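Collaboration report, partner site 2.

Our partner group contributed sequences for two proteins of shared interest, and the home lab folded both. The records are reproduced in the order in which they were received, starting with the first partner submission.
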Amino acid sequence: MAFIRYRKIGNNEYAYSVQAYWDSTLKKSRQKTTYLGIVVDKDKGIYKNPRKDSRGKELILDFGDTFIIDQTLKKSPLYQVIRHSFGSFANEILALSYYKLCSPGAMSHAYNFYKGNYINQVFPDLRIKSQRISEILKTIGAENVMREFFTQYIKTVTDKENGLIIDSTALPNHINTPFSMWSHTDNNIEMSIKFLFVTTKEFGHPLYFRYLPGSIPDVSLVTNTLQELKFFGVKSSFALLDAGFYSSENITKLNEADLAFLTRLPSSRKIFKQLITEVAPTIEKAHNATKYNNRILFVKHKEVEIDDMHLNAYVILDPIRKQRETSKLLSNLLEDDLIDDNTDNALLSKGIFILISSDTIETTQVVPLYYKRQKVEELFGIAKDDIDILPLRIHSESTLRGYLLINFIALSIYVLLNTALGNKYRLEETLSIMRNLKCKIYND
């Protein structure tokens, strides 16, 4: 459904056509806005659009959003990395990255954004229509180009870091590539590829990505990823991993590589049930209490031996979560009259999760350290919701690599801008407000 939205700025009133539509990928309603012009006669729907001259060239451009992106990026080492890595394609890469940040959508719409934005003055005469974009993505998706980019880029974000956060997500799609396979995604079974993402531990800077067939389990990814990062000169001493990466093979190899780690123990493991039995009955003691984000948790440390390795287990109880999960379980069991001798054992694990580490960590610090991995999940959300990495519409492997690389660069710029803004402003709101700053173009 389309409607006209009016905005009063100064002495003029401006008209915009707003088209509402349902985004089936993001499962939410969205809007596409088209500028119509200055209102001449609102009742008759007559508008004057001074943006274009007689040759169709736009004379009034969106300015503020890409101006602050461009000025901030030029102060960052990432700007020179892009210039050096992509050579004659650098302007196209920058323009497409700015587009993903300011007007996320299909790459086929990038040229329309380019025509109406200040970036056509910063990067004049770019050919970024749909077919040309496919050629660009294929070129930058070549293995040697990507290797050159990451060789240069990683140097700029690892000087002060020695820890990694590794996580993965599924990217659903219907593209024709051997990497697109049936897998579980958010409680559904869909065709997808697996997108593995690595960030620095302290500040959450995007560091590296890999894509793999959607059917490959997470436990097989860690050691290969660490080997690739080692090739790029990453000398990490700590890895923060989600439960999906837990396996005897992974923790053994991490231990052999003398790489410290912290990961969540899956509840299906025998050692999990053993620790619940031993620790849960006595965990709610005052000396085990700690505070995280204004919530009281109980944390108990216990040394364990797993596959001949001496490791540290941290049993963590969240009382609020325990109350919720206990209430739900008992309500269901009472309703169906299913309470038996096993119920008390089932109640012991409610509200509890267990972390495993090769290092001894203060019980007050282990939970804040583990939840640093939320930074990766936040970046996944940004990539999917704000940069519109989905849906994937790419049909060759090299083009897919190029497309994911553009999104990785856009995400890196996003983090750069967000860091510059601090906590006072949200980046999405900032870009939206700054877009209201226009510029006029003159012949001279």
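Second partner submission, folded after the first:
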Amino acid sequence: MIEPPRIRFDHLLEMSDELGTFEHALLGEPRREQGYCTDDMARVAVVATREPNPSPEVERLIETSLRFLGKAQSPDGGYRNRMSELGKWQDLPTLEDCWGRSVWALGTASSLIEADSTRQMVLSQFEAAARRRSPWRRAMSFASIGAAELLAAWPGHVEARALLIAAADAMPTCAKDPCWPWPEERLTYANAVIPEAMIAAGSILDRGPLLRHGLDLLGWLLEHETFDGHLSVTPAGGSAPGEVRPAFDQQPIEVAALAEACARAATIDASDRRWTDGVRKSVDWFLGHNDGNHVMCDPDTGGGFDGLEAGGTNLNQGTESTLAFLSTLQLGHRLVLR
């Protein structure tokens, strides 16, 4: 494994102000005119609350992200996703990924935050969101992970358990084609969140077949996205059987999702070394062990580059990519760098 850097929040702090974290960057500078998005603020909440012994600056990121999620939530539990640089919402509430990621963030924060008043506020938001059900698979998968995080800390939480049961009941069963066991015709984005949700639900709800199916599906995905000893993840345009690999452009979100799923599998199926190896390969992808041999981060600031392209690296350091790098590095330090 390449020697990893330590976790730095410098770039994420540079991308943030009192309202939130700007979505896009031009190289290392925030593109303020393009505003903020709830998807990113949910990711900020997850990464910041998971950080052990957070600095005062990271504590402010936690406060800002949770405040943003509270403003994004509608009374019926849906979420707006787009806010202008002036703090004006640009869309209507939905149950799309921004809802699922917000449930993930709120469940994670509720399980980790120690201050009673803050935890009660976050729990109230979680409960309002968790009463809803999304028709979109990835949104429900993200929400499932949030429910599982909360239930790991508070096993009797009624809304979290009801949400996780509803999600588990709708999770895909074994595919008919053993050569393409994926439950969709194409791999698209954040693919590993689907088996991660199955693993989380199967474990928490004591559904052995669902847990095993999730582990099997994650094992297939990890093998499918490995080439010559390194990760070669699904490109932005997706992937289907028979398409040429490796392909570009590869997005950091795919690597981060794989790291998250492998980390969860490693806590449940500790005897299988594939999972810690998957986390290790995910960290290494950012550090240059990838299809282009390009470093995909700025180790001095903690910024993550926006994409691995056929001709090189997209050097813009947007919030999604930066959080993908930071979250992967967190998991690496927790599981394989001790």
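Feedback sent to the partner group on the second submission included the following. The chain has a mean pLDDT of 96. The longest strand covers residues 307-309.
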